[in-house]
């Protein structure tokens, strides 16, 4: 059993311990090549095999159809906020659904490249509910509709993807799934493009995964840097510029780990189990001491923000958690309170340890 503390960081976040051990064992000599992965040419046989396996495993895990391309890019989620409009908007309309900080940032950045418009928002009341797709003011001319499917800071998550076709729209759905990719299946029939920074649920910061339908390629604005033109990246199998090789390698190890655990279906089963345990305690026995105000219908399975009813005890709470090996529970500064991020790499035992501490702290005399 692990002696390491449980790390509830929102990102960069904990990785499966098995993966870290494997990476450590292969650090100086990958598979008898005499080289560490960081020291290999990205065009050499060894690294090409690592990248090809990572892509194939991700395609299998998420059941990505053949008419979608998988790209390994750099720049993170925030760069995608510019790269997506540069590639997909053609300088025309793009619609945004605001559900929290991340979608807000996306809409703001897109304004630099296209006619970006907020067509639905849950800002009123503080991002505690999900705007019902039936009420979205979709524009008929929009090239795409952007949603953040899991708001890492505000802790709201789409439990199903909106069906734009059924809503009468031909726009491509763009999903920022950075903080819950590989924790649930994706219905690709509803999606045009998905992107995810790796550092939440996949691997180290520095790799960004883009999964894009082929017919959306080839329409980049003239100002788009070549290295960020999806078609250029796709035509060069993500090797137009030097890709983040070590990050891709670790992502590949994580994909293999997810496969060994039973795939995305098993990750989802575990995510539900962990989330139910934690929310169940907060709403039930712990409700006198803690509060989570988010509508239960759209609570995130990955990021669980909560507050102490007596916020003067925040520092004591965090110090006690740290002393018990429960790390990085402090909430994002824009929301305050606490946040437990319980991504794929967080074992059930970690959430059980957290709940045991929540109970102990709630029952401790002041
Ligand atoms: C973390 C995160 C990002 C930002 O990623 P960077 O790598 O910092 O650019 C974008 N979207 C979501 C939903 C995130 O959780």
UniProtKB/TrEMBL annotation:
<feature type="binding site">
    <location>
        <position position="152"/>
    </location>
    <ligand>
        <name>pyridoxal 5'-phosphate</name>
    </ligand>
</feature>
<keyword id="KW-0663">Pyridoxal phosphate</keyword>
<feature type="binding site">
    <location>
        <position position="199"/>
    </location>
    <ligand>
        <name>pyridoxal 5'-phosphate</name>
    </ligand>
</feature>
<comment type="similarity">
    <text>Belongs to the class-V pyridoxal-phosphate-dependent aminotransferase family. SerC subfamily.</text>
</comment>
<feature type="binding site">
    <location>
        <position position="176"/>
    </location>
    <ligand>
        <name>pyridoxal 5'-phosphate</name>
    </ligand>
</feature>
<comment type="pathway">
    <text>Amino-acid biosynthesis; L-serine biosynthesis; L-serine from 3-phospho-D-glycerate: step 2/3.</text>
</comment>
<dbReference type="GO" id="GO:0008615">
    <property type="term" value="P:pyridoxine biosynthetic process"/>
</dbReference>
<dbReference type="InterPro" id="IPR015421">
    <property type="entry name" value="PyrdxlP-dep_Trfase_major"/>
</dbReference>
<feature type="domain" description="Aminotransferase class V">
    <location>
        <begin position="6"/>
        <end position="354"/>
    </location>
</feature>
<keyword id="KW-0664">Pyridoxine biosynthesis</keyword>
<dbReference type="GO" id="GO:0030170">
    <property type="term" value="F:pyridoxal phosphate binding"/>
</dbReference>
<protein>
    <recommendedName>
        <fullName>Phosphoserine aminotransferase</fullName>
        <ecNumber>2.6.1.52</ecNumber>
    </recommendedName>
</protein>
<dbReference type="InterPro" id="IPR000192">
    <property type="entry name" value="Aminotrans_V_dom"/>
</dbReference>
<dbReference type="Pfam" id="PF00266">
    <property type="entry name" value="Aminotran_5"/>
</dbReference>
<dbReference type="InterPro" id="IPR022278">
    <property type="entry name" value="Pser_aminoTfrase"/>
</dbReference>
<dbReference type="InterPro" id="IPR015424">
    <property type="entry name" value="PyrdxlP-dep_Trfase"/>
</dbReference>
<feature type="binding site">
    <location>
        <begin position="241"/>
        <end position="242"/>
    </location>
    <ligand>
        <name>pyridoxal 5'-phosphate</name>
    </ligand>
</feature>
<keyword id="KW-0963">Cytoplasm</keyword>
<keyword id="KW-0028">Amino-acid biosynthesis</keyword>
<feature type="binding site">
    <location>
        <position position="102"/>
    </location>
    <ligand>
        <name>pyridoxal 5'-phosphate</name>
    </ligand>
</feature>
<dbReference type="GO" id="GO:0005737">
    <property type="term" value="C:cytoplasm"/>
</dbReference>
<comment type="function">
    <text>Catalyzes the reversible conversion of 3-phosphohydroxypyruvate to phosphoserine and of 3-hydroxy-2-oxo-4-phosphonooxybutanoate to phosphohydroxythreonine.</text>
</comment>
<comment type="pathway">
    <text>Cofactor biosynthesis; pyridoxine 5'-phosphate biosynthesis; pyridoxine 5'-phosphate from D-erythrose 4-phosphate: step 3/5.</text>
</comment>
<keyword id="KW-0808">Transferase</keyword>
<keyword id="KW-0718">Serine biosynthesis</keyword>
<dbReference type="InterPro" id="IPR015422">
    <property type="entry name" value="PyrdxlP-dep_Trfase_small"/>
</dbReference>
<dbReference type="GO" id="GO:0004648">
    <property type="term" value="F:O-phospho-L-serine:2-oxoglutarate aminotransferase activity"/>
</dbReference>
<keyword id="KW-0032">Aminotransferase</keyword>
<feature type="binding site">
    <location>
        <position position="43"/>
    </location>
    <ligand>
        <name>L-glutamate</name>
    </ligand>
</feature>
<dbReference type="GO" id="GO:0006564">
    <property type="term" value="P:L-serine biosynthetic process"/>
</dbReference>
<comment type="subunit">
    <text>Homodimer.</text>
</comment>
<dbReference type="InterPro" id="IPR020578">
    <property type="entry name" value="Aminotrans_V_PyrdxlP_BS"/>
</dbReference>
<feature type="modified residue" description="N6-(pyridoxal phosphate)lysine">
    <location>
        <position position="200"/>
    </location>
</feature>
């Amino acid at each position: 059993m692990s002696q390491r503390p449980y790390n509830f960081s929102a990102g960069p976040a904990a990785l499966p311990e098995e993966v870290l051990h494997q990476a450590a064992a292969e650090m100086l000599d990958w598979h008898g090549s005499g080289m560490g992965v960081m020291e290999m040419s990205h065009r050499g046989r060894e690294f090409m095999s690592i990248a090809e396996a990572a892509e194939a495993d991700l395609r299998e895990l998420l059941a990505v159809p053949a008419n979608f391309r998988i790209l390994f890019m750099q720049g993170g989620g925030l760069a995608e906020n510019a790269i997506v409009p540069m590639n997909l908007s053609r300088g025309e309309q793009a619609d945004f659904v605001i559900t929290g900080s991340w979608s807000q940032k996306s809409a703001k950045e897109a304004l630099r490249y296209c006619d970006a418009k907020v067509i639905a928002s849950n800002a009123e009341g503080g991002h505690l509910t999900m705007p019902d797709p039936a009420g979205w003011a979709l524009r008929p001319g929009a090239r795409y509709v952007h949603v953040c499917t899991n708001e890492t800071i505000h802790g709201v998550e789409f439990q199903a993807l909106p069906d734009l076709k059924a809503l009468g729209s031909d726009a491509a759905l763009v999903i920022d799934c950075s903080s819950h990719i590989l924790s649930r299946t994706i219905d690709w029939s509803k999606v045009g493009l998905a992107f995810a920074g790796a550092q939440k649920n996949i691997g180290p910061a520095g790799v960004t995964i883009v999964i894009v339908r082929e017919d959306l390629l080839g329409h980049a604005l003239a100002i788009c840097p070549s290295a960020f033109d999806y078609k250029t990246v796709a035509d060069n199998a993500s090797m137009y510029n030097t890709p983040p090789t070590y990050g891709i390698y670790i992502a590949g190890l994580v994909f293999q780990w997810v496969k060994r655990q039973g795939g995305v279906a098993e990750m989802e089963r575990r995510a539900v189990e962990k989330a139910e345990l934690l929310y169940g305690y907060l709403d039930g026995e712990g409700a006198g001491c803690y509060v989570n105000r988010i509508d239960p219908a759209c609570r995130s399975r990955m990021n669980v923000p909560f507050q102490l009813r007596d916020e003067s005890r925040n520092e004591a709470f965090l110090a006690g958690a740290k002393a018990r090996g429960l790390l990085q529970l402090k909430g994002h500064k824009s929301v305050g309170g606490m946040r437990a991020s319980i991504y794929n790499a967080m074992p059930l035992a970690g959430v059980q340890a957290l709940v045991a501490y929540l109970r102990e702290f709630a029952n401790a005399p002041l």
